[in-house]
Amino acid sequence: MAKNPNRNNRSAGKGGAGRTPRKRAASPHAKTNDAQGPEPSGNGIFPIVGVGASAGGLEAFTQLLHALPTDTGMAFVLVQHLHPDFQSALTEILSRETSMPVSEIQDRTQVAPNHVYVIPPSADLQLMHGKLHLLPRKVHELTMPIDQFFRSLAADQGGRAVGVILSGTASDGVLGLKAVKAEGGITFAQDEATAKYDGMPHSAIAAGVVDFVLPPDKIAQELAQLARHPYVSRTTADTAAVEPPLAGDTLEKIFLLLRTHTGHDFTYYKHSTIQRRIARRMLLHKLANQQDYVRYLQENRSEIDLLFHDILINVTSFFRDPEAFEALAEKTFPGIAKRPAGTPIRVWVPGCSTGEEAYSIAIALIEHLGERAAVFPIQIFATDIDELAIERARNGIYPEDIIQDVGPARLGHFFSKVEGGYQISKTVRDMCVFAVQDIIKDPPFSRIDLISCRNLLIYLGSMLQKKVLTIFHYALNPQGYLFLGTAESVGGLAELFVAADAKEKVYAKKAVVTPHAPFGISPEVPAARLDQPAVGRQVGTGFDIEREADRLLMSQYAPSAVVINEHRDILHFHGRTGRYLEPSPGQASLNLMKMARDNLPLALNAAVREAVDTGSVARRRDVKVRDGGGSWRVNIEVTPITGPGLVERYFLVVFQDVPPPEELAKEEEGAEKPTDSEVKRLEAELAANREYLQSVIEQQETSNEELRSANEEIQSSNEELQSINEELETAKEELQSTNEELSTVNDELSSRAQELEQANSDLGNLISSMGIPIVIVGSEMHIRRFTPQAEKLLNLISTDVGRPISDIRPNVVIPAFETKITEVIEKAEPVQYDVPDASGHWYSLWIHPYKTLNNEINGAVIAFIDIDRLKRSLEATRQAHEYSEAIIAAIRNPLLVLDRNLSVVSVSNSYKEVFQVDEKETLGNLVYRLGNSQWAIPQLRARLEEAVETGTEFKDFIVTHDFPKIGEKTMSVSGRRIPTGVMDEPMVLMQIEDRTENATAHIEPSTRDE
Questions:
Q1: Positive or negative, the Cα torsion across 255, 257, 260, 261?
Q2: Range of the domain at 647
Q3: Of 594, 629, 657, which residue is a domain's last?
Q4: Most buried in the list 11, 486, 794, 858, measured by CB within 10 Å?
Q5: Residues 137 and 15 in one domain
Q6: CB atoms within 10 A of CB 158
Q7: E strands of 448-544, at which residues?
Q8: Contacting residues for 112 by C-beta, under 8 A, at least 6 apart
Q9: Residues 112, 49 share a domain
């Protein structure tokens, strides 16, 4: 991945939208000579750059346009997150930064080079055949417009697609960039240090789908250089003319470097795909010479890893091709589920990439089985040669935009929200075992019910495809299924699989002997054996005289015939068939229709079809056959071959020449008749010869019988040895397969053990650092774990683990301790109690239910929080409060204690006696609402508020009022703030003194009227 060395370079500036409007003709990067830039071809072939942005993206795209030449020959499509009700002004703003035409996209807009197109609000965008199509945005649904456009851009433009992610939040664009890179396109992300919001760039970079990480102005410079490279401007049809393929020796050197560094041999993969990935890597490093790239690989081992991951093309998604998954559920799941309860369902996903396909099958199985999912253990083995992809698959964390593929319902049911996206639930993850495996050389799994290998075979050569399909046939159960990608098929191995759904590429295994394909050897060996038919094989090394005689008789006297299957493929020849069949020009084929001579195909096809449909013998008579030397007539007979154990149908096709009309024999006239003596002599000689021949025949029969007996013994021994050898070979392959499965499970368990060890270490350090006595008990009330701080408090030692909690005599007083724990486990509700220890030290006892990741209750967690200081502080506060209350009650003058809101929090006995009120109608009321609002005097209220807020003390505020029950009185009020020790909770003490006797002299003129 290219990385900008100066990540903190912010020289491009910000606030581009506020620049003075100007034309871009004077840009230092712009080129006025058209010959220096790529001219748009007459057939409209040019790169299209998709730019995705969200919050802060306008500023970044403005910087990119400002630094971009106007004659790159590229088209630029900006997909910005816009509010559907927002009137966009992007077109006007961006027009100020470039002289290229900037327009808002209309439906079915034809893309042109050196133009900028802006997505309108409230619409989704897709590209097809160079035209931009607007789609109505779904209301109240989370949409990912950048991913949606980038995916269509990759599918439409292939290697000419360029994806750029600028500033924005969340993770829109990750899956889109992944698709662009898979098709051979180039991907960019804004440097996080220059992005106003780094969510989208960070998600793309973390996903490993970005080729260049640069600030916007540097992205513009890189785009200008890429625009002039043949890789991004070529067409698919003229690839060879624009960019010659790698020389054979160069490609072999690259394969050698890959095999040496990674251990994987790509020699027998499809070279066209690998050459495109190599050309892409050369483009990224600006290398035009093939030898220079080989040298670069030798000098930079990290580039070999990057090329290796580019070749693997780790592109997949959840429920890829939904119709295919529906067909899979309809055609395979009902048959797979017909098994005794407890029998595991075994699935193998070779080439699983980052795990989406394996998890999709697991989810589909769970949905199909419903409540029965708990009855059948589901084992999904997912393998790949990419260790990084396997690691991501194990974590099961995917970006937020998977909602497009999964849907809201499945997202809520099978995923949980985590930092950075969504994680597949633990229930589904436990079904899947991920491991590194090379399907070409490592032993396969066995006893598999379903193999899902989608879009892997298309990258393999024909020889590897045959070997892999043969391995799949071996690995499947007799009723197993094979699930392939939309562009894949079983090809020339139709004798091994039958289509269950030809359209969606679901195949069932045929019950025929698997062609031997040993594991871990050079692919040339199995390829040669795979060309042999699956039926009619003969094993044996002894010479059989009877069989040889039968062969001679069949070759000389029996009619010419062939054995075919229902696909018209010839499996065996009998006699001399050259008069009727001959190889056809072009690619070699054993198809009966292609090998039949002139005039025969029509009659043969009709006869075979009749035999297939009726299941009985079909005949065609007096069929004329032509050859360069003349013509003759032949009778054709097609007979079905039946027998126990045959899954596929076979037919015997017999050819018999029609003899020409017999010519009348001419009688030989004048022939001399032999004499009687000569006749007798000849008869005697004939009798002698007959006797001699009879004796020879008897001797021959005796010898033949002895030889036949010996041959039968040898044949029997040979068959026994062959049977033993086949059993040993089968046992060996099963052991290899079992060993591979155990190795895979071991890798998975090792990975999980490491995770568990790390989690235990984290948990141990966390609990120890808290310094809190904690005890964990199981559902059977046995101690499972405790912290060091709990040892002294509960009298525990290390050997107490596993003992019942009832056996422990703790130092704290906990009445009905076991009963409390049992209630928590049964009710799944936490409880809290304050308990003292033997010395009077107080603790807060918390008992919480212990919940597993599956939300099941499996015990309880008991924690002791030290509250002794708090308890004593509260006791001291209580005592102080009682003390203050006693003082207030003892004072002779009426007193009120008010809080900061002037509500009464305490009242003295003398106040209740003087004003003849009870405590209930006084406490909690606002002071200016007491009685008949005798204290509702604005000046008094202002002085009380000033006292509580600033601490200003006041004295002798005279109030004359007709008080209820006691009549008109003159009272002197004084107030001062009381410190409480709490910053925001001051109080004020309001003291009242009766001055009625000298009221006339002290009444202030405005105490009541005002």
A1: negative
A2: 564-657
A3: 657
A4: 794
A5: yes
A6: 16
A7: 448-453, 476-484, 497-501, 506-509
A8: 40, 75
A9: yes
Answer yes or no: are the C-beta atoms of 56 and 135 closer than 8 Å.
no
Is residue 519 located within the same domain as residue 380?
A: yes
Among 213, 233, 253, the domain-final residue is 233
Among residues 934, 949, 889, 878, the alpha carbon closest in space to that of 913 is found at: 889
Q: Shortest CA distance to 283 belongs to which of 241, 242, 237?
A: 242
pTM exceeds 0.70, yes or no? no
Number of structural domains the chain divides into: 6
Q: Would you state the structure tokens that stand for residue 491, as one six-digit string?
A: 């090809």
The CATH code of the domain that includes 520 is: 3.40.50.150
Across the chain, which has 1010 residues, the per-10-residue mean pLDDT values are 38 37 38 36 72 89 90 91 75 87 91 92 88 81 83 88 90 88 89 90 88 92 82 47 58 88 86 85 82 88 87 84 90 88 90 92 92 86 90 89 86 87 89 89 87 89 88 90 89 85 90 65 39 38 52 68 87 84 83 84 83 88 77 88 73 86 42 62 61 64 77 74 72 72 75 79 74 86 84 80 82 82 88 84 88 83 85 76 71 84 86 84 86 86 86 87 85 85 74 76 43
Asked if residue 591 lies in contact with residue 568, where contact means CB atoms within 8 angstroms, the answer is yes
Q: What's the Cα-to-Cα distance from 143 to each of 79, 122, 156, rounded to whole Å?
A: 13, 11, 21
Are residues 100 and 8 part of one domain? yes
Q: How many CB atoms lie within 10 A of CB 283?
A: 21
Among 440, 435, 430, 443, CA closest to 460: 440
Considering the domain architecture, whether residues 427 and 494 belong to the same structural domain is answered as yes
Q: Are residues 650 and 601 in the same domain?
A: yes
Tokens of 956: 């002798």
Report the CATH number at residue 616: 3.30.450
